[in-house]
Amino acid sequence: MATALRRLAKCSVSARLLSFAGHSRGRRGHFARPCTVVAQRNFSSASTMTVDLDSSTGIAVMKLHSPPVNSLSLDFLTEIAISLEKLEMNKGCRGVVVTSALPKIFSAGLDILEMYGKSPERCGEFWRAVQEMWLKFYSSRLVTVAAINGSSPAGGCLLSMTCDYRIMADNPRYSIGLNETQLGIVAPFWFKDTMVNTVGHRTAEIALQLGLLYSPQDALKIGMVDELVPEEKLVSTATEAMARWFAIPDHARQITKSAMRKPTIDKLLSARETDISNFVSFITKDSIQKSLKLYLENLRKKKA
Ligand SMILES: CCCCCCCCCCC/C=C/C(=O)SCCNC(=O)CCNC(=O)[C@H](O)C(C)(C)COP(=O)(O)OP(=O)(O)OC[C@H]1O[C@@H](n2cnc3c(N)ncnc32)[C@H](O)[C@@H]1OP(=O)(O)O
Prior knowledge:
By secondary structure, the protein is of the alpha/beta class. It has one domain: 2-enoyl-CoA Hydratase, Chain A, domain 1. It is 47% helix and 12% strand. A six-stranded mixed β-sheet has the order 1-2-3-4-6-8, with helices on both faces. The longest helix is centred in the last third of the chain and has 20 residues, at 250-269. The chain is globular, with a radius of gyration of 18 Å. Ligand L4XM7KOE binds at residues 68-69, 71, 104-105, 108-113, 151, 153-155, 179-180, 183, 185-188, 278-279, 282-283, 299-300, 302-303. Ligand L4XM7KOE is lined by residues 68-69, 71, 104-105, 108-113, 151, 153-155, 179-180, 183, 185-188, 278-279, 282-283, 299-300, 302-303. This is Enoyl-CoA delta isomerase 1, mitochondrial. It catalyses: (3Z)-octenoyl-CoA = (2E)-octenoyl-CoA; (2E)-tetradecenoyl-CoA = (3Z)-tetradecenoyl-CoA; a (3E)-enoyl-CoA = a 4-saturated (2E)-enoyl-CoA; (3Z)-hexenoyl-CoA = (2E)-hexenoyl-CoA. Pfam families: ECH_1 (PF00378). It is found in: Mitochondrion matrix.
């Protein structure tokens, strides 16, 4: 099943940029099961998320549910990307709120187990799925709002930064940031570009080198998130925020979004295969595998 989903994801890559500026209308036929689900739970075939589309508002809420920590495995990434693709193809959908169904964690980032002890082929497949998820979200025609209801390190932070707007629960126990260097790994150029586009060059330089994880208050100060609210108000605030974006004519907003993001997207599209081989050769190095092993052991020790 997951393999079939991945194949489908690969087929739809070329249609992605067309989805900008509202050109997605003719693409319904790409899926055997069109996305016309309205206010219905679990239209995703997987149980790792629910997607509820309210037909009266055009807002979908995507709740990530992959216990224990919503880490982004190959299959989970593929499911997220396909769910977004289905919403993109649904004329009744104008925006999506991404949040977590798990307590205290938005997403723990990329699944470290996908990068540790895996074959080069599998690592390559995994990295393509990471790219795909980023490309889909970053180029989405939809208004995307992240309702960050828990910690969001590394890939979790990246996912939220692909969105147009970020609202985080005001809980000092949560943290967010690109902490890759703390694991002894390196955020690739398009993670870095997304961070620079979000918080500016100087702040990104400090944050990335030191692998900083920010409290919600500090994340607000540097512009990594746009708003803080009490946790119970997160999704309602996200849907309210959406109204401001919906007030702008879709075509004008979408063309503007494309103009802002296209150079960053094109940079990855033109270097996609090189980026995959760089990832594979970096992640399979003995020294990097040792760092990851140590990091995993520490994560497990912390619990014991
Ligand atoms: C030349 C240049 C070339 C460049 C090439 C590219 C280089 C590579 C780029 C890779 C980019 C990587 C991006 C990432 O996202 S890496 C992942 C980073 N994530 C983290 O560091 C988060 C780690 N986790 C935590 O901090 C905590 O778990 C968390 C705060 C999220 C939750 O804490 P809590 O106490 O609630 O839960 P536990 O720590 O007990 O965790 C529960 C179990 O989940 C496991 N776990 C946690 N995070 C992950 C993860 N990211 N992947 C896999 N598994 C994870 C944890 O080990 C526990 O498991 P066990 O129950 O088995 O002990």
